[in-house]
Design a protein that fits this description.
The complex is a heterotetramer. Chain A is of the alpha/beta class. Helices cover 36% and strands 27% of the residues of chain A. In chain A, strands 6-7-8-3-9-10 form a 6-stranded mixed beta sheet, sandwiched between helices. In chain A, strand 1 and strand 2 form a beta hairpin. Chain A starts with a strand and ends with a helix. Chain B has a domain of 194 residues. Chain B has a two-stranded antiparallel ribbon. In chain B, helix 6 packs across helix 8. Chain B is globular, with a radius of gyration of 19 Å. Chain C is elongated. In chain D, 46% of the residues lie in helices and 20% in strands. Chain D is built from 13 helices and 15 strands. The longest helix of chain D has 22 residues. The termini of chain D are far apart. The chains are: A alpha/beta, B mainly alpha, C alpha/beta, D alpha/beta. The interface between C and D is large, with 36 and 39 residues.
Chain lengths: 236, 289, 562, 396
């Protein structure tokens, strides 16, 4: 078994006539946090959506555990252990926190494990426990983001893809969210593919970094090297 | 005063009918965002299916109702699968889908008229019970309309809130993309709501058959009033559809107390006009951005 | 053959209706489902005015058009507040109510019996009382109506309509008066439909409510969608197809009992099939810019577009601005003073109220309290488009480009004081508009040159790269000719090289005496570009100073810079 | 159909034609001898504008059935002097003026139709000026609006108009000594016209109108109307409605516990089907006559209809059946004049020259100067689910 759990080769994607992501190779190794940095419009979200199956890639391959999954329905990916936390409010705003979490475990075959999973998540984010009955849309931005991550963890995914979890959060909350992500990675061994703009908070938790610019990968390597690369750092 | 009491009861009865129509239509609309005009002829088809089951096959009326619901559900699912889904996959604009739905409306309504003839259909020998409570009249079918509304919306409410499929429907209504992200097959959910929404329409359809008989064109009014009830009550809310339907029934009935009856068919639209102007999100709606 | 002539008359009448409807749906993006009601107004106006008042042609027609246009303008008022499905149902309701009135106001309309004996059109004693004689008149009417619609659609006004369709707030932000535009387009659409109604009354010599029901509106909608929204020729094709198709189907011989119903079934199926095959309509929308001449790329430079203004004068100032949303305080006691020739930065954490402050300064949100002055003039409470015209323009964080329009059009639509925005001038001062368009084309090209997008002038905005989109946002803002530019994160997401291109542009603007305010997160950018920086938190300015002063402020560092 | 029986039917149907008719026949025949040879079309197309689709397509079905039966019968007997008839039916979608004009134009252009059977007011009113200009013979056996009278000089009606039916109905109510009238009418030209006539008559004769309610054509929900009628506490209820709505209305009125007499102007199989027991005692005025042994043509028609369509003929089927015979007869007479006879104006002139025609309801009918056939209006009562003739009512 190779070290890579999720891999893309020559992945390209876009909307309509507009090609946004070109020829991207990424490798997410088991148990690591791969941080994909890039600015607005660099194609980060498009790339994540193409990997997860929300968008059909126009070219290239995606392999999960050595198996090709490009263009497959998101539901199949979820069922096999990939979770996705979309940008912004990745929750159901009209439903309660509890319902949201239950829905996060929608594909779980063994429903009896729901309460146990929920407890795990409450341990990670105690605030959600307090607010079980509250309607999602009325939570604060940070709480919503925690709920979104909690939902993604419900079915014990092996890979979690996060699309800019820091967006719209106050700096102190960004830190809190990043620490939670690191903790998830540490305590559950979940491999994490995360897209970010906020270098300051995300870089410290990353095992490896890729940089996207105008839809192409321009850097791939350890975070330390990136910090040393003045030209690259100037991007941010 | 007797008249007022009677009109109040009439409003409640008709409102229940509208509410039930609104619940079925609204479930489909809120979840799939399809303005499903063909809901009208499917409602009609359900009435004829019930007629066929009761009159030709000689089944008891409750069984005929179930049969009608099954027919409607199948028609609804077929409509989604072979009409709307291809448009959805082709990423057509909602207006294109709307026109296609109207095309199907024309097709189905005329097909029904060809198959069953253009005259009215009643179940031979069926006689509903009549209640005269003091000055107030209502029939067993009308009582059935109210009970059906209460029971079915309650059941639907429980189904949505408590079951796995129900929650999948709520999730898809709330945020279809998020639903896909957590592994819900939204196409399956759409099929499910078309089945449930259409099956629901069979109940008011059968009751209208019992009350007044069926005609091939009965679906037009049904889908219109359903649409209006949903908008007045607020899209995406079961409570809203019920409230919208009841409000329409009440206003229509009590309004006609003083307004000449030739305005009957316009009252609902005047209410709609005012509600949307003053409260665009509907009585119970949340603002959808 | 008379039958064919009759069908052609019907094609003409429905052609007018579809074209008029397309103005609303395709160009303005207003889904108002009451077109058959406007059609009815025109028909009843002619019927009533000729039968009851004995008015001669064309008095009945003109009066009918005017009355209907006025009613159309009234319908525009709900369209200001609501949109989407809600506009559809409100207008649908209106349609039903109008027909109910036509049915129930029997003294005036004859109820379901209708009004008969409407005199045929009579041109110089020659009665147009059969299809052959009527057809030329119908063709002329269609020609005129089409010309009016075409003129409108291809004018600067039409361009503004499409911009409004793409994004209402962005159209407002480039100085377009949405109320005026909606009222005008509704009036025109309704007025043109009334022409069709009048023709109908004259042709049939009979008017009855059943001819103008909801199914007629739906029929017209099908013509517009089938023909292609935003393409007037498409509407003609759509009308022709949907008028002729049912007639052709009648030649399919079937047993009497099922013949007509079967024809309708086939009709419905064909409609679905055509829509499946061509969901964008038979003729898709095309850029209306194609008919404009390309201007030579002679060396016109942005430098000439801005005459230098005096510097260091206070231009825009906001005084003690307050805004609450429900229980949340967004802006509380915010003061800001912007000066000509200087670049002011606005920084602060997410949720600090930066964008809200912009929304307040530009009229997109109404103030709870506080005053805004521009060059000594109180502009508090003005509508966004008036603030732009006064000289304060803003961009949006999420760009809000007019995505289906070309880069050139995006810029042209933003140019100030276009006579062509006024429908009166569009029709009555064509030469002026023509000259102005030539000038504006040159100006727009200059703006594109300035931001370096000349080579993309005829590219649709949605096909631009992200960086190009950002540049186009800047260009569009420049085109407004405003004195004060409020940029909401214009630079985020741009790489070094693009930034290097933009910095001089912004600096040049400031040097020419423009006032610039930028919301930005990137401290390097702030440091490099800004003269003054406001640090915003909790809805007011925590600190004001030069970039260095603020970045070295230890209190702020813990809050924001860490 | 057994030939013998048919022949018998034909013989019978000739009998009631009076001496005047026979005389007229001889006069026209002798005139024909003097005239030039008639110019005949290969086939006589008889056009029709019916509600073949839409909410009221029930009418189109029965009307076209009656029409086709008559045409087949006439063709079986050799057509009009050997020229076969053909029915060409166009759809006006339940009374849409434009659709009527579309269809009418097709009929004239594609089939050179000279006689058209029409129905419903709006399309008839819309084609009337074209008929005038193009000289097309029109006959209406369904629309009852008084506005139709005189819409075209070629327009004839073989049914009594709203005024006659409504008038007869309320004059009967008056005879019964009833004072307080409540009425439920269609919100359409048909209903409006009856209300106008009836209200005027009723008030002039000392009655009061305690409730005047309207219902949409085919509306299912009329509880509010009935509640308001009940609140008016009437002596009787006038149902100015047409098929199948009197059935629905009667049922709902009885449901509400109202026991007062119901008087209307329409009764069809569908009305009975929907109304059921509630229609017991319902009285209605109609120009229809019960098919019976006394009226052999009626009986033959009813029998033939039942054989063809497996249902009893409706009043509307009968009218359009009869209308074809009127057209055929008028054409025969026009042809007898010789020359270029195949034109609507010639056919109309032939009708006007001798306005008496056999009626399928028995006896003969006479087209008056205004184009409306004067038929006897009779009062019927529903008993045990069947209509029973009570008496003729003379228009006052």
């Amino acid at each position: 078994m190779s070290a890579a759990i999720l891999e893309t080769r020559g992945l390209a994607a876009g909307y309509g006539k507009k090609q946004i992501v070109h020829d991207v190779d990424l490798t997410l190794d088991r148990g690591e946090i791969l941080l994909v940095l890039g600015h607005n419009g660099a194609g980060k979200t498009t790339l994540m959506r193409a990997i997860f199956g929300l968008l059909k890639p126009t070219a290239g391959e995606v392999t999960y555990d050595g198996k090709p999954i490009a263009g497959r329905a998101p539901g199949d990916n979820v069922a096999e252990g990939i979770a996705f936390v979309p940008q912004g409010h990745g929750i159901f705003r009209t439903l309660s926190v509890r319902d949201n979490l239950e829905l996060g475990g929608f594909i779980m075959a063994d429903k009896t494990r729901l309460p146990e999973r929920m407890q795990t998540i409450f341990k990670l984010f105690p605030i959600l426990d307090e607010r079980q009955q509250q309607i999602g849309g009325t939570l604060s931005g940070g709480q919503q983001q925690m709920l979104a991550i909690g939902m993604a963890l419900m079915h014990e995914p092996r890979v979690v893809i996060l699309d800019e979890p820091s967006i719209g959060l106050a700096p102190n909350l960004v830190d809190r969210v990043m620490q939670s992500i690191a903790e998830i990675n540490r305590s559950f061994g979940t491999s994490i593919l995360m897209v970010e703009q906020n270098v300051r908070y995300s870089l410290p938790i990353a095992s490896r970094v890729a940089v996207l610019k105008a839809g192409r990968k321009i850097y791939d390597g350890p975070p330390a090297h990136l910090q040393d690369d003045v030209e690259l750092m100037k991007l941010f | 005063m007797d008249l007022f009491a009677q009109l109040f009861v009439n409003g409640l009865i008709n409102g229940s009918h509208y509410a039930l129509l609104g619940v079925g239509f609204g479930l489909i609309f809120a979840t799939t965002r399809i303005v499903h005009f063909a809901y009208g002829p499917i409602f009609t088809a359900a009435a004829y299916a019930a007629w066929f089951a009761a009159n030709v096959l000689g089944l008891p009326i409750p069984v005929a109702m179930v049969f009608a619901a099954a027919v409607a559900a199948v028609l609804g699912v077929i409509t989604y699968q072979y009409l709307y889904l291809p448009f959805e996959r082709g990423q057509s604009s909602s207006h294109v889908t709307l026109i296609a739905s109207l095309g199907l409306f024309i097709v189905l309504e005329n097909l029904i008229a060809i198959i069953f003839g253009t005259g009215g259909r009643v179940i031979d020998g069926y006689q509903y019970g009549i209640f005269l409570v003091g000055p107030i009249y209502f029939s067993s079918v009308q009582l059935g309309q109210v009970i059906a509304m209460v029971v079915l919306t309650a059941l639907l409410g429980v189904y949505l809130a408590r079951t796995r499929h129900g929650k999948a429907i709520l999730a898809t209504t709330d945020n279809p993309e998020m639903a896909r992200i957590i592994g819900i097959d939204t196409v399956k959910v759409s099929r499910l709501v078309f089945a449930i929404g259409s099956a629901l329409s069979a109940i008011p359809a059968t009751l209208i058959l019992l009350k007044d008989g069926a005609t091939p064109s009965m679906g037009f009014f049904a889908v219109f009033i359903a649409f209006v009830a949903v908008i007045v009550g607020g899209v995406g809310s079961l409570r809203g559809a019920v409230a919208g339907g009841l409000a329409l029934g009440m206003v229509e009935s009590l309004g006609l107390w003083k307004i000449p009856t030739e305005w009957q068919s316009s009252i609902a639209f005047i209410v709609l006009f005012l509600v949307v102007l003053l409260r665009p999100q509907g009585l119970f709606g949340r603002t959808v951005s | 053959m008379e039958y064919i002539l009759h069908i052609l008359v019907m094609v003409c009448i429905y052609g007018i209706l579809a074209v008029s409807f397309n103005l609303l749906i395709g160009f303005a993006g207003l889904f108002a489902m009451a077109q058959a009601a406007f059609y009815a107004f025109g028909a009843y106006a002619t019927a009533i005015l000729t039968l009851k008042l004995g008015l001669p042609f064309p008095v009945d027609l003109l009066l009918g058009v005017l009355i209907t246009a006025f009613i159309g303008a009234l319908v525009a008022i709900p369209a200001i507040r609501i949109s989407g499905t809600y506009l559809v149902v409100v207008t649908l309701a209106l349609q039903v109510i109008v027909i109910a009135i036509a049915t129930n106001w029997k003294d005036l309309t004859g109820g379901t019996d209708g009004l008969r004996g409407i005199p045929s059109l009579n041109i110089f004693g020659y009665a147009l009382d059969n299809p052959g004689r009527f057809l030329p008149a119908a063709i002329v009417a269609l020609g005129i109506c089409f010309w009016v619609a075409w003129r409108l659609a291809n004018s600067p006004f039409g361009r503004a309509l499409r911009a409004m369709r793409e994004n209402e707030s962005a159209a407002e932000a480039v100085g377009k008066n949405l109320l005026y535009m909606k009222v005008a387009v509704f009036a025109f659409s309704a007025g043109l439909a009334a022409v069709a109604g009048s023709l109908f009354a004259r042709y049939l010599n009979y008017v009855g409510a059943e001819s103008f029901g909801i199914d007629e509106t739906i029929y017209m909608l099908a013509m517009v969608i089938l023909g292609g929204t935003g393409n007037l020729w498409g509407s003609l094709v759509g009308a022709a197809v949907l008028v002729i198709l049912p007639e052709l189907l009648k030649f399919v011989t079937l047993p009497t009992e099922i013949a007509d119903k079967s024809h309708l079934i086939i009709y419905g199926l064909l409609l679905i099939v055509i829509l499946r095959l061509r969901p964008e309509g038979l003729l898709a929308e095309r850029s209306t810019m194609r008919h404009l001449p390309h201007v030579d790329d002679t060396n016109r430079h942005g430098a000439e577009m801005t005459a230098p203004l005096p510097k260091d004068e206070v231009t825009l100032s906001g005084n003690d601005l307050h805004k609450r949303f429900g229980g949340i305080v967004a802006v509380a006691g915010f003061n800001i003073v912007l000066k000509s020739g200087s670049i002011t930065g606005l920084i602060g954490p997410n949720g600090a109220g930066k964008t809200t402050a912009f929304n307040l300064l530009t009229g997109f949100l109404s103030l709870d309290s506080g005053t805004i002055t521009f060059r000594g003039r109180n502009i508090t409470g003005l509508k966004p488009h008036n603030i732009v015209r006064a000289g304060v323009a803003r961009s949006f964080q999420d760009l809000r480009l007019f995505t289906k329009m070309t880069a050139l059009e995006n810029v042209m639509v933003a140019l100030p004081n276009q006579a062509g925005d006024r429908v009166f001038d569009v029709f009555f001062r064509p030469m002026k508009i023509h000259r102005e368009e030539q000038d504006n084309l040159v100006r727009a090209r200059a703006v594109l040159d300035f931001v370096g997008l000349t080579h993309k002038a005829y590219e649709t905005a949605e096909n631009l790269s992200y960086a190009e989109e950002k540049l186009l946002v800047v260009g569009r803002l420049l085109a407004t000719g405003a004195e004060v530019f409020l940029f909401d994160e214009p630079l985020s997401g741009l790489d070094r090289t693009t930034l290097a291109e933009i910095f001089p542009i912004v600096r040049k603007l400031a040097d020419s005496g423009k006032t610039i305010c930028i919301i930005e997160h990137n401290l390097d950018v702030i440091k490099e570009l800004c003269d003054v920086v406001y640090f915003l938190d909790e809805g007011h300015a925590m600190a004001i100073g030069t970039p260095d002063q603020l970045m070295n402020d230890p209190a702020l560092a813990t809050r924001y810079f860490k | 159909m057994p030939l013998e029986e048919e022949a018998q039917g034909r013989k019978d149907m000739l009998k009631p034609i009076g001496a005047a008719l026979t005389a007229a026949f001889f006069i026209t025949t002798s005139a024909a001898l003097a005239a030039e040879k008639p110019k005949d079309p290969d086939v006589i197309h008889i056009g029709a504008l019916f509600a073949m689709t839409g909410k009221t397509s029930f009418y189109g079905t029965v009307m076209s059935q009656g029409m086709k039966q008559a045409i087949d019968e006439i063709n079986a007997k050799g057509g009009v002097d050997g020229i076969k008839l053909e029915a060409d039916i166009e759809d006006h979608k339940g009374g849409v003026a434009k659709a009527g004009v579309d269809g009418f134009t097709r009929l004239r252009n594609l089939y050179n139709v000279q006689a058209v059977m029409t129905s419903f007011s709006p399309p008839t009113l819309a084609i009337a000026p074209i008929a005038d200009e193009q000289k097309i013979f029109l006959i209406n056996g369904g629309g009852v609006s008084n506005n139709l009278v005189g819409a075209s000089k070629y327009l004839f009606h073989n049914r009594s108009l709203a005024s006659d039916l409504g008038h007869a109905a309320v004059s009967h109510a008056h005879d019964l000594g009833l004072k307080k009238m409540a009425e439920l009418a269609w919100n359409s030209d048909a209903g409006d016209n009856i209300v106008k006539v009836v209200d005027e008559y009723w008030k002039k004769n000392g009655g009061t109108v305690v409730a005047s309610e309207k219902m949409d054509v085919g509306a299912s929900n009329i509880d509010t109307q009935v509640a308001k009628i009940r609140a008016g506490n009437p002596d009787f209820i006038g149902l100015w409605l047409f098929s199948p709505d009197p059935g629905l209305a009667a049922k709902r009125i009885r449901d509400f516990g109202l026991k007062v007499p119901l008087i209307g102007v329409e009764y069809t199989a569908d009305v009975q089907k929907l109304g059921g027991a509630a229609l017991e005692g319902y009285e209605f005025t109609s120009d229809y006559f019960q098919p019976s042994a006394d009226e052999p043509w009626s009986a033959a028609f009813a029998k033939g209809y039942k054989e063809r369509y497996h249902s009893d003929p409706d009043f509307y089927a009968a009218n359009y059946y009869e209308g074809v015979y009127v057209i055929a007869e008028a054409m025969k007479r026009a042809r007898a004049e010789g020359g270029d006879w195949y034109h609507g104006d010639k056919i109309a002139a032939a009708l006007r020259a001798n306005p008496t025609f056999k009626s399928v309801y028995g006896g003969s009918m006479v087209f008056q100067a205004n184009g409306v056939a004067k038929k006897r209006v009779a009062l019927f009562k529903v008993q045990n689910g069947n209509k029973v003739f009570e008496k003729y009512i003379e228009a006052k």
